[in-house]
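ok trying this again, last paste got cut off
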Amino acid sequence: MRRFISVFIALTLIGVGVLLMYKYSRSFKFKGVQESEIEFNNSFIFEEKACLNFIEREMVSEGGGIYTNFLDSDNVQPYASGHEVLSESEGLIMIYYVKNNKKEKFDLHYEYVNKNMLLDSGLIRWRIREGNKDLSKSSAAIDDLRIARALIYAYNLWDDRKYLSTLKKINKGLIRYSVKDDYLTDYYEENFSYTSDQITLSYMDLFTIKQLSVLDKEWNKIYEKGLEVIRNGFISDSLPLYQKTYKISEGKYIKEDYINIIDSMLVVMHLSEVGLARRESIEWIRNQIYDREGIYSKYSIETGEPLDTQESTAVYAIAARIAKNIGDKSLHCELIEKMLALQVKDKGSRLYGSFGDIRTLKVYSFDNLQALLAF
């Protein structure tokens, strides 16, 4: 009898444990994921739809990935070109689809990444060309984080544990291979088992890093180290933006004569997502739009003055996302209007709806995907 009672108690305890584990697995959520971007009423639905239609019509490969460029190129370059597919593009479109509650389309890209880009290490190839997956076995930390963010959003929204499973793989890969002395480095090269010795400040996606600390507390140290590098990389009051690159082994920033504005806009955006954007940086953006009538691609670090008059869709899109994050609807609208000046509006053109050059037919996925997220 005692033996029966003991077995009964043991089975009961096991059953309770299983139920508690099931309950935990069903109720586990990331916190604050909706706080990264304040949702505005979109007054530009027509323009957004035209851009999305162009991407889905002209920029999607037979396999389902997003092309880097509208025009193809047979040459393999050190940088992305032609109909290569980037983890950057996949992460951006996944974030867009999950924010618009389009699970079926999200899953197409989720499966594409799993099948074609996810390495055994848990990291993600930064680029492939369909039919030649081994074009690269390098990862890029910012792209891995972007896909991780998309999976966090997806898991919280749709409660599908396959997203959490993949997220955990990426999390372990980043911690094991891309972190050096508690710094999240730029990349890991699997062919040479090499972890980068530098940090591109725009790679520090603070919001996603903070979310990943739910899975592994190591991210708390990585967050603090990354934030320190960003804060110490502030340039000056006359150019209240950020240095591009920090060399870990030397403990200093790589000297540059100018900044590429996209890099600095991304840093400010990441800060704005965790409520840490500097007032000076926000005022600088406002001044460029309201007083100087534009944000250009390069600025002198010494003088703070623009070095060209080239405008970029991605720059205005990222700045518009910053405006959303800080709740400035007026600035957001101004930036979207500046961005829309670069959209192709000729309905007779194959590029209609895109943000590209109608003369050269140059259209980049990064510009168009950032535009979608800015709307």
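PB: full thing came through this time. The chain has a mean pLDDT of 89.
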